[in-house]
Design brief:
The protein is α/β, with parallel strands linked by helices and 214 residues long. The protein has one domain: Formyl transferase, N-terminal domain (Rossmann fold, 3-Layer(aba) Sandwich). It is built from six helices and nine strands; from the N terminus they run E-H-E-H-E-H-E-H-E-H-E-E-H-E-E. Strands 3-2-1-4-5-6-7 form a seven-stranded mixed sheet, sandwiched between helices. The protein has a two-stranded antiparallel ribbon with strand order 8-9. The protein is globular. It catalyses: N(1)-(5-phospho-beta-D-ribosyl)glycinamide + (6R)-10-formyltetrahydrofolate = N(2)-formyl-N(1)-(5-phospho-beta-D-ribosyl)glycinamide + (6S)-5,6,7,8-tetrahydrofolate + H(+).
Length: 214
């Protein structure tokens, strides 16, 4: 049976769309049961409705504390019988209470090859540091920001003349491929959190490599 998944967004929801499209395929082990936003004007809400997905808005500005906001959010997730959460551009820092309640069941996508460039402005910092390979990471969420155990990563070369925008655009293509893959893995049990690390149920070929410059 497909696992019930909520996608949490704050904006346009491009990664949300990639998850919805992947979950619509026969045999995918997850269904997107809910799209929840902390912003009533998030463009992704209309995109979710157009796909026939239930939506909810929990406006953080209408709650006096982060704890009140998260209690309201958790109540909606419980009501929709959500089993896993995907953060997809959800621009709120979550409290330890919420993170620990969803330990091993909440994942995030971050636009860098963690543990490099935690936080914001990752593409700018990658260009400033002169790295030749950059990318994105899907990880389990832990209380420390962008520090959770890594489920999957995708890398792209940084090329001469790259700007933040051009680099971000190439990485976004990989995000849209990587996030559904990671969701499949946690929902079918091939990747799971054990003892603070990700345990994989199968091995893969370790001979491939991305080199830059080629």
């Amino acid at each position: 049976m497909a696992r019930r998944v909520a996608v949490l967004i704050s904006g346009r929801g491009s990664n949300m769309v990639s998850l919805i499209e992947a979950a619509s395929a026969p045999g995918f082990p997850a269904e997107i049961a809910l799209v929840l936003s902390n912003r009533p004007d998030a463009a992704g809400l209309e995109r979710a409705r157009a796909a026939g997905i239930a939506t909810a808005v929990i406006d953080h500005k209408s709650h006096p504390t982060r704890e009140d906001f998260e209690q309201a959010m958790d109540a909606v997730l419980t009501r929709h019988r959500v089993e896993f959460i995907c953060l997809a551009g959800f621009m709120r820092v979550l409290t330890d209470w919420f993170v620990e309640r969803w330990t091993g069941r909440m994942i995030n996508i971050h636009p860098s090859l963690l543990p490099l460039f935690r936080g914001v402005h990752t593409h700018r910092r990658a260009l400033e540091e002169g790295v030749l390979i950059h990318g994105c990471t899907v990880h389990f969420v832990v209380p420390e920001l962008d520090a959770g155990p890594i489920i999957a990563q995708a890398a792209v070369p940084v090329i001469p003349g790259d700007t933040e925008e051009s680099l971000a655009a190439r990485i976004l293509v990989q995000e849209h491929l990587l996030y559904p893959q990671a969701l499949r893995m946690i929902c079918d049990g091939s990747a799971r959190l054990e003892g603070g690390r990700v345990a994989f149920s199968q091995r893969w070929n370790g001979e491939g490599a991305l080199r830059s410059p080629i």
